Amino acid sequence: MTKEQERDELHRAIWQIANDLRGSVDGWDFKSYVLGFLFYRFISENLTRYINHGEREVGNTDFHYGDISDDDAEFGREATILDKGYYILPSELFENVRKKAKTDSNLNETLSKVFRNVENSAKGTDSEDDMKGLFDEIDVNSNKLGASVQRRNEKLVKIMDAIGGLKLGDFQDSNNDTFGDAYEFLMTMYASTAGKSGGEFFTPQEVSELLAKITVVGKKEVNKVYDPACGSGSLLLKFAKVLGKENVRQGFYGQEINITTYNLCRINMFLHDVNFEKFSIAHGDTLLDPKHWDDEPFDAIVSNPPYSLKWDGDSNPLLINDPRFSPAGVLAPKSAADLAFTMHMLSWLSTSGTAAIVEFPGVLYRGGAEQKIRKYLIDNNYVDAVIQLPANLFFGVSIATCIIVLKRSKKDNKTLFINASKEFIKGGNKNKLTEENQQRILNAYIARKDDAYFSALIENARITENDYNLSVTSYIEQEDTRESIDIVKLNAEIQVIVKRQNELRTDIDRIVSELKEEYIDFENREQKAIERECNE
Questions:
Q1: What's this model's pTM, rounded to 2 decimal places?
Q2: Helix, strand, or coil here: 497?
């Protein structure tokens, strides 16, 4: 099955589940069941594959973990948890719970116990924080599933059968983003419920890939990658595709303030077979309580932080002395934390690293504190490139966003501007970057030279003269697509038209005059005929 066929199959299954649950489970809650059971299936299959492989390597060719007893399975618990970070008894594997689901009158309680046991298997181990709370969003006892236990269990059976029947290929293949595909489709289905916030915690996969590619230009491996507003983790995991997860040597780091998406991000790591030792996803407010002080700096930073987020700003006297923000001498305004995230990322960027950040366009040209922060960035030569993206790429956000690329070590005192606003195709009600669109942008970024109407390499001195305005259209001329007109030829054509118009007007006047004379003559004849009749 091709990747496109797998994606279509996944979408059909999710749509069918949605129809089965229509009227009972709210769409935005429904996503938790789909993603949660996808995760449950994955970790069950992943663990089974891992244990089967180990047994078959020592000659036990007919061994299948799902077929042995729970008592026999206990023998390998400790060693498996050290490596995988969790443990599931054979009777609690997705495939075995699903087999008995239709006849299990206490299915909801069975599942609740399974989820609790999986999380508890990591207690007291290095993976405890990575596993804790991963099933919190799946409420198998919710009245939303049904008013009675029987009704709830019927819905749970339908969900398990639909998820279990999916032909999902190789989950952990870095080119197979099943979880991302499912999440993106769910976002599309329930965009109205997601509202404006939708774009904040999910970045379309093609944009994620472009950001990752930009940050690793010229590199085959990096030590650590980081996203301070990691959402569901789609940006971080693109490094697994672009470089291969083994080439992110020390792992994937991120922080997320939203508890739901924090859990989704950790689930996504497991779904891509990123071992718990290779990721550190923290929960909390990155700007006020960053969790990775001991892990910075990072070689590659990618992020799509929330646009125009309110934050403490200058109402918190401690922030101006924070080493992340103090170098600019001013804090981002309380009404828009965009450049606070930017300063945070710059502070945690390694000397040879690159950061690619999706930004709200207002940060490029607004005055006040934001202009002063841009002054700091330009005067210290940290801005490598500014890329204008097409409009309507993100869920819940129709405006044209941009990418700011930061480097601590540049070879010139110039900033590259790229106008990629027309690099897209229509994809349903959203625009999409194709591979060709991505490659053109990436090629321009690598070439770092002028290309009419598309890219311009600008001296920082010119940006200074322009009051530190970083708007792409200020430096790249817009192509005039209007049709050129030959004025001499046009005037000649107008003269012909005027001449013909005059001829027609003359002909019309003549015809009207002739008709008028004929009418008068007709009236005279009629009048004489009437007079004759009267005289007779």
A1: 0.82
A2: helix
